[in-house]
């Protein structure tokens, strides 16, 4: 803390020096608000993201596949928990964040509003959706808020397992019958573009980007992250022997990156606005799960109260 500078300047100096900001440190209100919005939105995405895949646990083609999918979906619940806890360190109670999700005020990743039509979709989600999540989350391990960055380190380790299990599903199917190969191609055709949209609109159309970059909440721009994902994924598509559904996708020798076609942002904004194929279904499932779990929360609170009384009694005896 240098008294020649204002609180705000000291804060920015710490960020510039790559210091992590911790829960009890002074921070601008807008930094706190941005983080609560971003981390809770991330947490919501983890738990809503369990729904499209949960549908396939009972339909997995073998015990091994069922176990892997189950473990993956449980990991996502864990990611939600770490992230709600990280957001709570900023002073917003979890119940408030959950209410915002249920009332439609808070958003979650648009990708989870698409349907999962067959088993190949489990492969495509692991490979593409978790693959995109990794690119985003590896960058976030260097985010300026300590609890968020530390949560990301563990989450990234689990995400790489998710991506591998997805790729393994697709690879196995791609070695199978013609019908199975067609299923792989069909699933990838449906998930490719929505996966690219996961990184959000181009930075020129993303109003909070510049401030988030200055505060190092964000470390790379949406377009940079998207490009990293594309560059990483195209060679993997070749291993699967599939075509990515973009005729303009080609390697640019000058930039050493893949050029890609125009993203349909109208579709993205439609899904964000609640008009995706599964928005209503997803939110209804979340609200039902929350209501069905009410008795568990009540029982936990009652048990904690009882334990408290017991501890007090033991203390007063001693
Ligand atoms: Fe996750
Ligand atoms: Fe994941």
What does this structure look like?
The N and C termini lie far apart (45 Å). This protein has helices at 7-16, 29-48, 50-54, 63-88, 94-102, 119-140, 146-174, 178-197, 209-214, 222-240, 265-275, 279-292, 294-317; strands at residues 250-252, 257-259. It has 13 helices and two strands; from the N terminus they run ααααααααααββααα. The structure holds fe (ii) ion (2 copies). One fe (ii) ion is lined by residues 76, 130, 133, 159, 162.
Short description:
By secondary structure, this protein is mainly α. The chain has 13 helices and two strands, in the order H-H-H-H-H-H-H-H-H-H-E-E-H-H-H.
Topology:
Layout: H1 7-16, H2 29-48, H3 50-54, H4 63-88, H5 94-102, H6 119-140, H7 146-174, H8 178-197, H9 209-214, H10 222-240, E1 250-252, E2 257-259, H11 265-275, H12 279-292, H13 294-317
Helix pairs in contact: 2-4, 4-7, 6-7, 6-8, 6-10
This protein binds fe (ii) ion (2 copies).
One fe (ii) ion binds at residues 76, 130, 133, 159, 162.
Hetero compounds: fe (ii) ion
What is the overall pLDDT average? Answer: 95
Radius of gyration: 22 Å
Helix percentage range: 55-70%
* Structural category: mainly alpha
Query: For the largest beta sheet, what order do the strands appear in spatially?
Result: 1-2
């Amino acid at each position: 803390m240098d008294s020649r500078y204002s609180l705000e300047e000291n804060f920015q100096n710490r960020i510039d020096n790559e210091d992590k900001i911790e829960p009890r440190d002074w921070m601008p209100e807008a930094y706190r608000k941005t983080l609560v919005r971003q981390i809770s939105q991330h947490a919501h995405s983890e738990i809503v993201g369990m729904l499209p895949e949960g549908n396939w646990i009972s339909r997995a083609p073998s015990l091994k596949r069922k176990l892997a999918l189950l473990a993956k979906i449980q990991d996502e619940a864990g990611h939600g928990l770490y992230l709600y806890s990280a957001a709570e360190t900023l002073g917003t109670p979890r119940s408030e964040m959950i209410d915002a999700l249920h009332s439609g005020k808070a958003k979650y990743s648009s990708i989870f509003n698409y349907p999962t039509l067959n088993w190949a979709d489990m492969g495509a989600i692991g490979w593409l959706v978790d693959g995109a999540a990794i690119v985003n989350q590896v960058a976030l391990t260097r985010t300026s808020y300590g609890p968020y960055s530390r949560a990301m380190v563990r989450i990234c380790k689990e995400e790489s397992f998710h991506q591998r299990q997805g790729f393994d599903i697709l690879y196995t199917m791609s070695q199978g019958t013609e019908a199975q190969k067609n299923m792989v191609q069909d699933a990838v055709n449906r998930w490719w573009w929505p996966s690219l949209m996961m990184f959000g609109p181009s930075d020129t159309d993303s109003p909070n980007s510049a401030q988030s970059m200055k505060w190092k909440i964000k470390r790379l721009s949406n377009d940079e992250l998207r490009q990293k994902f594309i560059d990483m994924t195209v060679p993997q598509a070749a291993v699967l022997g599939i075509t990515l559904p973009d005729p303009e996708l080609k390697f640019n020798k000058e930039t050493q990156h893949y050029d890609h076609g125009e993203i349909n942002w109208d579709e993205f904004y439609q899904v964000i606005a609640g008009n995706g194929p599964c928005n209503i279904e997803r939110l209804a499932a979340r609200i039902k799960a929350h209501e069905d779990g009410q008795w568990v929360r009540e029982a936990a609170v009652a048990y904690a109260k009882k334990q408290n009384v017991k501890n007090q009694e033991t203390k007063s005896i001693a």
